[in-house]
Amino acid sequence: MRSALPSLQTLVGGSLSNADVLPCRSSNCVGLSSLPLLALIMPEPVRHSWIPDLPLDSSLLFEFLLFLYLLVVLFIQSTNI
């Protein structure tokens, strides 16, 4: 069983009602009456990005590339010494 939604006074903590307008400094002020009450309570759902499937290499190709990488690292380390 779902409980009732909290009132706007509970959320804001003041004596604002749906007809009150929040003070603002710009010319395009937006009052609380123009926003739906659920937009103040419910967050926007999370939209995850799509991760593409990566192609897999064979085990033999992976071992060969790892061997080449280690040879290059060994050469660089020997030149460093």
Automatic annotation (TrEMBL):
GO terms for biological process: negative regulation of autophagosome assembly; negative regulation of autophagosome maturation. GO terms for cellular component: endoplasmic reticulum membrane. It is a multi-pass membrane protein. Pfam families: Tmp39 (PF10271). Keywords: Membrane, Transmembrane, Transmembrane helix. This is Uncharacterized protein. The chain crosses the membrane at residues 59-76. Its main location: membrane. InterPro entries: Uncharacterised_TMEM39 (IPR019397). It is found in: Membrane. Belongs to the TMEM39 family. The keyword Membrane applies. It comes from the Eukaryota.
